[in-house]
Every structure is written in structure tokens, then in C-alpha cells.
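Re: the 284-residue chain
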Amino acid sequence: MNDWQRDWPAPAKINLFLHVVGRRADGYHLLQTVFRFLDFGDSLRCEPRSDGRILLATPLPGVPPETDLTVRAAAALRAATGTTAGVTLHLDKRLPMGGGLGGGSSDAATTLLALNRLWRTGLDSPQLQRLGLALGADVPIFVHGRTSFAEGVGERFADVDLPAAWYLVLVPDVAVPTAAIFRSAQLRRDTPAIVAADWRPGFGHNDLEAVACALYPELIRHLDWLRRHGDARMSGSGACCFVEFVDESGARDALAALPADMRGFVAAGVDRHPLATHSLAMMI
């Protein structure tokens, strides 16, 4: 199988905590968080084109193809490098929209990583991260490819090592608009910052959770059910929420007990993006 025939993984992320520690003059929020990848996500296949066009073969309902993050990522890479290559993108979506699992950002990062190799454009990881940041604040972590303590708007990383863990992730039937959460007057924006080296598993909370739950009470029901099993938290701006288990069997037992009107999945936490081991950002 050559690289044009392979599937390129775009994993989910969860935020083990998420604090809003300030706000810049331009309106962007300053965050502290720990990103961890999950062994679950979308996948991308790229098909070369000879006409120089960038097309999405699998558009998402309600999302114009030209605004899709995968198309925008491909266009950004082409503009930055001067290549005239074209591509048809085939995206297999498993991650929910508006779920706080980074699905669109992960798809964009995988597009950058895959096409950087396929088009032989030769950008390194920092260059790809800068391209990604212009697409969305969560894109750089997927290019960086390591479990990390993140700061700034989410683009400055200090890698952390975590013990093995499994997660039960619930997917409420709600799509939470991130912008609405950050615009809320009820959002706390002054949580005291910490030094990355002082972070430990179990620390902190998600500052966005209270705002999201006030707007979408269904999240409260899901979090309350998860809290029977441990320290449940919302990921990102929601709506997905999770609880950690030490082993797969415990997570799957809890999933089996899930009420019929709730849905979710079990996934292992992984400390490296599945493409990071191939050093794709550096390969041409």
C-alpha cells in the first residue's frame, strides 16, 4: 500500500482540566489545559487530482464544503508552500460535531500532516502548527502530537507523561457552539494560573462546564450519571463528558449499564498521536 491508498487517523482529544486564566486585548481567551488523545476518532483518505482542485467528497450536513476545516487546511498548506497539487478528501466521521472532542481540529491537523507528506511540501512541525493555529486554537496540539499541558490560546506546550487509563465518553444529543460559551457573561475568566510542572492528574476543573450546563441542561443529566463512577468532567466546550477508569473492563461494564437514552463509547488514552511516530511533519 502506498501513502495515497492509506487511511490517515484523526484521533479525539479530551481536556483533563480546562481553566480560563485571562483574556487578551484582542478578545482571545487565555487558557490552561491538559490535552490527552484517545484511541478513537475520524479517518481521512486522500486521492490525488491532476486539475489542481481541492474537493471534499464527504461534505458534512449543514457545512459548506469550502468552509470545512479539511478543505481550509489543504488550501492553507498549498498557499504557504506554492504547490499547485490538487486532492479529493474522503473523510470518515465518527466524532460528533460540537462535542468538545476536537473532531474538526483533528481532521484539519491530519490533513496538514498527510498532505505535507503526500505533496512533499517539506514543512516541519512548528511551521505546520503555525498554519494550524490560523485554522483553530485546537489544531496545533494535534500536529504537536503529544499529551501536553497547554497554555496561551492553547498553542504553547509542555509534554507530560500519564499513567495508562481508559475512558468512558458520553455523547449527549446536543451540539454546543464553542463561540456561545466563550461569549457568555457568566464564564469565569480569572482562574489563577499554575506552573505546568505543578499540574497533577485530578487537578482542577473545566471552567466552561457551568456555562454549557446552564445553556444545555441535558449535560447535567449525563454528568450526574457518570459521577456514579468517578470524577466526571466535560471535555472542551462540550457536549461530551468523560470519566476515567484504570482498566478496560471497568469502563466497558459501565458502558453496558448506560441508560437506553444515552450513548457513548470506550477508548484508551494514548500519549502520542498515531501519526507522530512516523515523524510525518518532517518527511518529504
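The chain has one domain: 1-284.
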